[in-house]
Amino acid sequence: MSSDTLTKAASAAPEDPEDAAPLRIVPRRRPGLWTTAVVVLALLGLALNSVVRNDAFQWDVVGDYFASASVLRGLWLTLWLTAVVMALGFALGTLLAAFRLSTNPVLRAVSWGYVWLFRSMPILVQLLFWFNIGVLYPQILGVKTVNLLGPVTVAVVGLTLHEAAYAAEVVRGGILSVDRGQIEAAQALGLSRWRRWWRIVLPQAMRSIVPPAGNMLIGTLKGTSIVSVIAVQDLLYSVQLVYHRTYQVMPLLMVATLWYVIITSVLSVGQYYVERHYARGSGRGR
Fold first, then answer.
1. Which DSSP state fits 102?
2. Count of other CB atoms within 10 angstroms of residue 230
3. Ranges for the ABC transmembrane type-1 domain (predicted)?
4. What is the DSSP string of 10-25?
5. DSSP per residue over 32-58, as a string?
6. Cα separation of 89 and 164, whole Å?
7. Which one of 20, 137, 154, 185 has the largest count of C-beta atoms within 10 Å of its C-beta?
8. Do residues 221 and 78 make contact, with C-beta atoms less than 8 angstroms apart?
9. pLDDT below 70 — which residues of the chain?
10. Tell me: the pLDDT tens digits for 101-122?
11. CA distances (Å), 263 to each of 83, 167, 228, 256, 259, in order?
């Protein structure tokens, strides 16, 4: 390289590095990513269009029955059944979790056996078993089981016993997720056993309990549809009664589907805010 060229290059270079123009960072182009997004959106659009414009769905019939009295009565029973089963199931599950964490080997064995048995039995089998309990025990304490256990009572009993088995493991896992040092620190401060559980263990355990509990709530809401096999007039059974009379199967099933989608969406939003509440101070609340 000649001396003149070196001189020109030196004069062109800035004397102060701060005077140099900042480098422009260009993000890497990803044409495949955008192509995939366009293809997926196009497929979703085609699927949505096929549903909306398909006359076989009979959307006018869906609109007629969506808020009908019989459907709303079935929806109310579904919501009531879900609330009762979740409350009783978690109450019994919490008791079973306490047994499992007890130092008493008999209580631990009973809790383990309960969870093992009811998680092993399909929920449909449990419902049919309780529905036909009169075959094994015609009378309990002098009361005929046929009169004692109606279809709704059978649904509550069967679903609650099934739910409790899963709730017990959810609660036990949440309690075990709390650092042992937290409990020892509370003991060192002289807090009573009740205050330790209520003020220290439970708030921290709820961070691990709420997500699976929310999934269980949504699963229970949809799972109540199985009680239609024992003639409990829930949401699904209500639409079945209608389409058995009108033979409009698909639009009535869409009515039930839309209600399930709406309720589960509302519950999902509620679960998000409950999770955020219990995640405060842990860095996961955003």
1. S
2. 19
3. 75-271
4. HHHS-SSGGGSPPPPP
5. HHHHHHHHHHHHHHHHHHHHHT-GGG-
6. 4
7. 154
8. yes
9. 1-21, 145, 147, 281-286
10. 888 999 999 999 999 999 999 9
11. 13, 21, 19, 11, 6
SS3 of residue 233 by DSSP? coil
Question: pLDDT tens digits for 58-72?
Answer: 888 888 999 999 999
- Which alpha helices (H) appear in the chain, and where do they start and end? 3-12, 31-52, 59-66, 69-100, 105-120, 123-131, 145-148, 151-176, 180-188, 193-195, 202-223, 235-246, 249-278
Distance, first Cα to last Cα, the chain: 60
**Crossing angle for the helix pair 69-100 and 105-120, nearest 10 degrees?**
150
Of 263, 249, 187, whose CA–CA distance to 221 is shortest?
Answer: 263
Letter for the amino acid at 191?
Answer: L
User: Model-level pTM?
Assistant: 0.78
Would you state the structure tokens that stand for residue 248, as one six-digit string? Answer: 């409009």
